[in-house]
Amino acid sequence: MDSGSPRKSGRKKRKTQTTRSYRRREQEVQALLRETDRKGKEEKVDYEARSLQFFHGNEDERREEGDSPVHETGGQESDEDSGGELAAEPSESPTQTFIQIDLQDPPLVWNQLFKQRHYYDESLLYRPSNTLHFQLQQGDVRLKDYQIRMLNRYQEQAKSSSNKLSSQLIAQLSEVNPPKFIMDTTLYRSVCHKEFKSVFFEPVTPDEFQGLPNRRCLKLSLKQLRFSLHPQLMEEHRLAQQLEDLFDVYIYQRKHRVCRKLREELEIARQVAIKLLASAGQDQTSEVKRQFKLTQQLRQRYYSESTAERNLLQRLLKEWAKLKELRRQQQFQCTRFQLGLRVIHPPDLQASYSAWKESFETDLAEVYREQLEVFYTRQRLWTEQRSHSRKSASQAKPPRKPQFDKIMANLRKEYDKAFKDPVEPFVEIMRLRADEAAARICIPGSAQLPKARNYFLKIFLDGEFVGQTRSYRLEPDLQITINECMGVLLERTLPENLNIWLYEKSTLTPRSRRLAQMTTPLLMNSKDDAVHEKLSFQTTSSASTQLAGDVYVFYDYRSAEGLGGEHNLDDVQRLPMALRQKLIPPKLRALPEASKELVTPRAPYGRIRQSMLPPLIFLEQQLQFCDIETLLEDRRLHLLRSRHQQRNLHTKQLRFVPALENEITEEEPLPDSHGLGLGQLLDQGTYWNPIDLHKHRGRKFIKLLYEVISSQSARRAKTLQTPMPLLLLAEDSDQATGWPALWRAICSVFQQQPESLPREPSVWSGPQPMHDLYQHYNVSLHVVRATGVPVRSRHILNINERRTSAGGDMSTSLFVTQTLMYSNVRPFVTLSYGQRLCRSRTAEGSNPTWNEQLQLQIHSQFGDLREDLKITLFDELIEPQYSDEASDLYQRVQCNWLGEFRVPINTLLVSRKFEGCIELSMPKVLVGYKRPLIDSVTNMSTDQYPEFKEAVHLWFYLSIEPSKGDLMPLHSSALACAEMPELQHYLGERKLELVQLLPQPQRYVEPLVCTAQGKRVCLTRLLDPIPLPPAVASGENPVEISCRFVSLLSQLRSYDPCQSFRGVWLDNQTLLDSTWCTVKDLGVLLCNYLLALGLECWLILGVACPHGECSFVLFRQPETAELFLVSPATGKRYQLQDVYCPLRRVFCLVGKHNIYFNIQTENRVSMTNFNLQDGSCWFPLFSRRVLAPQSSVQKLDYMYKRSNDLSQLQKHIERKIMKKISAWRSTRKTVWNRAFQPRLQEILSDMESLATFSRGRYDEPVYSEQLEQEYPNYRLYGFTLNFAYTNLAAISERIRTTCIHYNNDASVEFCVAVHLHAHVNDVISVWLFLMSMVPLL
């Protein structure tokens, strides 16, 4: 008791005075109040009294606290012992609880921190109203105010999720029964928010009615099978699978951008809180509290998500380091998982440091304000509690004021965990997709390991068998890449469950062993994206070996009409007119017919980026009196031009043409406006298909354009070579007209040669003369060897049948089986041009070697060299023929076409030679043959047979003689230039620097090129996002569809200087309207399409086989950041390290903002460094001081046109083929078997999607085996052909090259099927299926 009394007296003594620390903290609070309250009067109020008045409310509490002020104890106490619970008691004013802290000079956190003042918009605030925002059909029911506000709230919530309010919810909120229908004077309309697609039914009896049709196509995609528990499982497998799972989570976070969305929501919540605090009244305290509570929760969630993302990145790096160290220690690699790091250092450390400080300052002020609110709330509760129980012996300790330094230190720890340091670089992880040659797996002692097993999957829908996959061998990394898609057509009901059974294929017996079952419910996804499922499996405990793993499955429901579905306007089938007039009420207006006007496609949301720069407009276009369309429609111009050409009998005798258009009488004959400048296209009485007419006019227009620009450049070059008068010299100068140009013209009078005018050594004055030197050419082909030649499938089946019937075992004669399988094909190579042909000797096996040189003599005029040199691969099939007598034995030789490679003769004349390895163009379906897969005969590993490739490759050397007579280039430097004189001078200086760095002078490409308008512009003006075709804009894989569309445009085959890099570059309007172009123009068009899709891409100018000077497209895959090369002529995609890429040399890379020249000594593309930031490898033409021109010459508002009807053209092609084959077989009777045609048409309908989405790879479909199984009584041989449509003569030439009509069997029958796939602007993909059938006796 004695010890307690002095303690009481000491406490009472501290009540009468304040300590120094308390006064110092109160001065800090007053400093904050002076910064925030600028409108207050300058009155000298006591600091303690003003603080208590602001934070503690009314006068009574302040008076009570004035009598007994609160002081803190002198000892150090913790936060846990200093206060009670946080109360949620509402106060009278928001200023009593909430503090607004504005950090200004001097800063409170750091002497270097600053904060930028923000200005906010009041439109972000949600203000509830008592007016219903939508129309509600509820009769005479009057809703109350709270019901209206609740309905508005649910309506806004449904809009955010793109849904509609249900009738049950509306009825529940409005407290009335939901109506079933609404009655009107004329119509009965049911109340339903779902829009149904109408279905027309013919009248049937109730017994025959089976329900509403629900046709859907279920697409199942089986991607990968991975084993996590296996007898061959090693530590490296476990680490690689764990890394793969972590990387999937990392990619998911990067794709959804969770932290970025949380940061944006946090900024919005802060803005709303500041606005509420500024305009808060006495009745809005709870709203302010709620908003600050939401801000705190968002900030904490943002910290936790950022910390989790940062920890995931650190864990990925640690696990990847462990995996690399394990591979180094064990000195072998059994998995293919590879990761790559992309480290980006901050470009501006000061800006990064300032942004970090601003964010830290904002969060610190917010946290400090929250701690002050908690402190003053606890202090008020403690004061009230002490005033009510003054006589109580035990009292709680007073709360302590939060320490600013401690709060800042804790926040700094959270920042270090969640966010990176300002000087820390940005690290991005990418998965490297290495090819098989670079990532070959090598395991020492693999001979002692057990043989690899073969596994396959069976698919069941609600217990009903659907299909199964092919059998796959388990790779050493315990993964199986399946990549198979199955389509299931559902008629009435949708399945509920998907069951997948895992089977192991036995190598000894035909029976397979079932291992595990996986089951998952099939969900209907509301979005268009596919559902991704990861199904886990584990074998039962009774199995001999324990297996466990995962299967990756994608599935989605699609429309049964195909990719277009109901969105494709060409697939809409209208009701008959009589039925439509009967069903549609007479008051309603009939629907308009389908318009045939121009169609502008709508680009996908978020993909195309509109260019902010205006298009490039030449000066003569701005000064012209009228546009070109008005000029072409002028009747007087038609008469004058027709009279000048002297081609029309009615107009060439005209002596007078009226000066005004209205003076021309209707009796005056007018020439055809469509044929203006194109000559006479149609003869009298000749029928032309609209598509053929379009192709013919487009080709003739491009040829006329080349002739006009060539003659213009020759005329200007000749003018520059001759002395000119003063004014003409100033006018024809490329520099801008004015006083400087006049001064240069005056100076040129006193000089021999003006330096500003370009000079050419010689002038090309039109077409070259047809000398006798160019009429005889010798083409030499040295063919070395080939790999991957298809083998005969029918021969293998006969071998298996004979061995099965004899009772022999395949394993006992494995060597004989392999020898027969890969030697049953006897290939040879032919070189042909027109009607002339030479062939090599016959080799044996799927990987033949010839090492033979072929010579072909060509005798033709110089202007007639327009066809292609064809390197064709055939199989020589020798069949024994028996006569009536047993002693007579004959042999019949048949040549089966396997593939070809076409070389344009004009590119060979320019390049003089092509050498290396080429990939033959193989048909997608080759009936009677199959790919040489070793696993179809034995279970030996494919690593022992590296010569088996996915495509057929041929090693060759092709040259042409004589080597003289080079074509003179186009003098494009003599044409007018649209660029500024300063830019031309800068390019000349950079050219002098570049020539000294180039290892080969041929790599230099002139950056100023000629366009279709006859003006020279910079190469960067050719690249700009342009409108996409409708199929690309609405397709699922826009990159593949774009490549396919560009590859189907017609390519010119002529020996013309306008087709080189110094020639004419077409814009998108000229190219797409005519559908004719060169390979370099295809690259520009494809690059612009990829830019419209939002991809990072460049245009590569170089030399390729067989196109010579051409352009490729280099783009970066967004998911993996990997670079790919795309050939615009074929649409195929190649990796940078692919040795089979047709691109031989790289001259330069053209981007949207710069041009990079290749200054590396390495010529091989697979060894070229494509790091554009490396100054030792790439020379940038433009710099930060001089930027590249940006305004584009492309037509940014181009409108595509629908293609014409293809039904008549398809019949013409089929009739033409049958007529030609019958004519070629003049000595034999040609029998056409139409029973096969529906099956062939069904196969061709799937070929376009297979060719588009297979990325140009030679993937053997299953159609060949299906045809052989469906028709076992025939010996079948056939193939598919695909090419872009130009004319009927080109189709006949391609079929004649295959030599299918040379089959001299007496009982042979033929079948042909034609399928046309139309794109916009009459770009047509032609698919042909030719088959010969011989009945088996």
TrEMBL record:
Region (Disordered): 1-96
Biased composition (Basic residues): 8-23
A single GO BP: non-motile cilium assembly
Family matches, as CDD domains: C2 (cd00030)
Gene Ontology cellular component terms for the protein in this record: ciliary transition zone
InterPro entries in UniProt: C2_dom, C2_domain_sf, CC2D2AN-C2, CEPT76/DRC7_peptidase-like_dom, Tectonic-like_complex_comp
Domain C2, chain residue ranges per copy: 757-918
PROSITE patterns, per database record: C2
Ranges of biased composition (kind: Basic and acidic residues): 24-49, 57-70
The protein's name in its UniProt record: Coiled-coil and C2 domain-containing protein 2A
Organism field: Drosophila kikkawai (Fruit fly)
Gene: Cc2d2a
